[in-house]
Amino acid sequence: GTSFLVSDQSRFAKEVLPQYFKHSNMASFVRQLNMYGFRKVVSIEQGGLLRPERDHVEFQHPSFVRGREQLLERVRRKVPALRGDDGRWRPEDLGRLLGENEILWREVVTLRQSHGQQHRVIGKLIQCLFGPLQAGPSNAGGKRKLSLMLDEGSSCPTPAKFNTCPLPGALLQDPYFIQSPLPET
User: 0.85 exceeded by the pTM?
Assistant: First the structure.
């Protein structure tokens, strides 16, 4: 009397959920339960070595008790802490939220720039590694040229053997560029 059990989730989603909700998605139902303070019951078997039935799921709430209907008024949707008692955003919290959003936006821009730089470095490395294969002699047996789809058209000079590949100075100044040590001659 302190929890409820769904023994067949797929059947529950197909037959029961559409009667009470606009969807038949079990994950959405579980999300709603969590917003109302219900928690999944984890049995000893689930935390230990024994495996319970995978399709069984059980939920409980401290105010969801058989025969104690007066407690049901305590089962309420959780309200974000950024809102006041009247449901409106408090100006100080709204300002803080906007400031955090701006910080996140700047971080996204920085990460995009770093990703672009890394993409260019990887493109140059691929050109250096596979350039000799593309420029090598092609025999009638059908060795095909390796087609690379790289954003930039500039490529490393094709060395005669696999040795060093000179990279543009800008790449060497890139904080994300890692250059392997050259063998001593």
Answer: no
